[in-house]
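Private note to self, pasted from the team thread so I don't lose it. Backbone tokens:
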């Protein structure tokens, strides 16, 4: 199916839908859901003070049980950038995506990385349709996304997993920040530049990258890695065979040097 056919397929399915929120068009429904979603974040989530510098929040690593084998906080399986954000979310919430937004896109909370990818692709294609002939779409009050960013992201998500080395571009970060209602702050460790996405988000996720790999940073400035849920951490290392785990009962454990 070429791009034009795919566009028409999604447009026919979604653009004409009526709002479950206020009885308007689908585009109005999404806008209203975005506004209301800020009110439906899990209880206890507060946007923290961001006055400490990025480097005050230590980088999380992983190790295999009590062995000497160590790795990063995001598995290097091609989805490391997405994993870094998922693990960051696991530090602040049991729920991955905002329920209100998922409902408006006709989706349930994912339980596997394959379902996460399907949701990201689904939402990205709908946003692309909502752009229509424009070049950008305002995901939130503080974060637009551009057609070029979405097209790049969609192309990479549709690439067969076995050929995927890393997902590039900020389209992925914007869609994740949008669906999680989070402010995602990224530091490029090669240039020391820091970038902030969705500053109106209710919570903060910090990640860093050397372009070849991504890392999650702790939610506070201590060395205590307190994951609110370990579900996604465990799934990340086991969703398909991870050689260091073969033949052992050990688990990959998060830690900070």
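Design output:
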């Amino acid at each position: 199916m070429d791009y034009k056919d795919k566009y028409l397929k999604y447009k026919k399915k979604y653009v004409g839908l009526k709002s479950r929120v206020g009885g308007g068009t689908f585009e109005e429904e999404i806008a209203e859901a975005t506004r209301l979603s800020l009110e439906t974040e899990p209880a206890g989530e507060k946007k923290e003070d961001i006055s400490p510098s990025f480097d005050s929040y230590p980088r999380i690593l992983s190790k295999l049980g009590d062995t000497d084998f160590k790795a990063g906080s995001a598995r290097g399986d091609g989805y490391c950038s997405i994993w870094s954000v998922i693990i960051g979310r696991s530090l602040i919430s049991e729920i991955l995506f905002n329920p209100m937004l998922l409902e408006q896109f006709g989706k349930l909370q994912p339980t596997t990385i394959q379902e996460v990818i399907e949701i990201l692709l689904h939402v990205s294609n709908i946003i692309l349709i909502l752009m229509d002939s424009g070049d950008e779409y305002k995901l939130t009050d503080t974060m637009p996304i551009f057609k070029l960013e979405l097209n790049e992201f969609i192309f990479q998500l549709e690439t067969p997993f076995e050929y995927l080395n890393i997902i590039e571009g900020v389209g992925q970060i914007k869609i994740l920040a949008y669906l999680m209602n989070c402010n995602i702050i990224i530091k490029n460790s090669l240039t020391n530049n820091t970038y902030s996405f969705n500053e109106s988000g209710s919570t903060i996720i910090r990640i860093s990258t050397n372009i070849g790999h991504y890392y999650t940073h702790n939610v506070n400035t201590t060395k205590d890695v307190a994951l609110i849920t370990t579900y996604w951490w465990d799934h990340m290392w086991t969703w398909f065979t991870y050689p260091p785990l073969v033949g052992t009962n050990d688990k990959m454990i998060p830690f900070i040097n």
